[in-house]
Design a protein that fits this description.
Length: about 325
Amino acid sequence: MDPLTHTATGLFLSRAGLKRWTPLATPILLVAANAPDCDIAALAGGPLNYLHYHRHLTHSLAALPVLALAAVALVRLAARKPVNWWGAWAAAAIAVASHLALDLTNAYGVRLLLPFSDRWLRLDLTNIVDLWIWAVVLVAVAGPFLARLVGSEIASANVKSRTHGRGFAIFALAFLLLYNGGRSVLHGRAVTVLESWMYRGTAPLRVAAMPGAANPWRWRGLVETGDFYAVEDVDLLGNFDPEEAAIFHKAEAEPAVEAARRTAAFQEFLRFSQYPLLRVSPVAEPENARQVELTDMRFTGFVARAVVTGGGQVVESSFSFGRIRP
């Protein structure tokens, strides 16, 4: 998920009751809820390095207790105030776990089982940015301030400070659970629709339903066959016509493709890609050279390219955050 959602979740966990576990609970939870994304430092090594290390060990269950301890230590050193170490660590661990759980709902996925397995796990329930979640976050963050402006002044200030925002926080956390549960049901229906049709006379090998940012009833349908991918939106409130699907043909095996596969950019990308699409096209220079392009059908970005000469020599290879061509 996006940093706003992770940060808000840490805040809501604090207001819902975890702030009672230790002094400095709120800053600890805010740091811990974002701690796995410290892998953004990998960008300093370039796009390919970032692809390798993003959602790597920092997003694994094995690293969870370490990240929780690091968050507590960082806040303790910065604030120079005592904390209840066991309570602080337990609260931070819950915040780190919330980050992993939210990222698991995305199509990007996480490698929770590292270093024992590098398998990508994903639920395809929510977009990395979900407008409904943002709306509830806004209400739950702004609600307590508005309530204090228009609410009764009867209660003591001490009582207010202990209960400030707790109801809104519990509401927001409950919404996250129920919303993802509801999207799971809708996702299952979308997958069933995609599996029920033939595409250009061919049965699907596997299908995926990718979430959008706004409409829970509308999913981006992705169907893989032996020769091509079919892409068509699934509207659970409307009709589905597989004949309207956009077709992306896979490249046939040829020496240029095999040469490109051996490059570091392609090997790293293939470790990440869940729905890889290879395309081959001629280029003007060098003479008789071919450009091999590798994309992941889940996204409009992440493109590996290689230029291969007629003799099978790779003269150029790269990975970048580009856009897939229709």
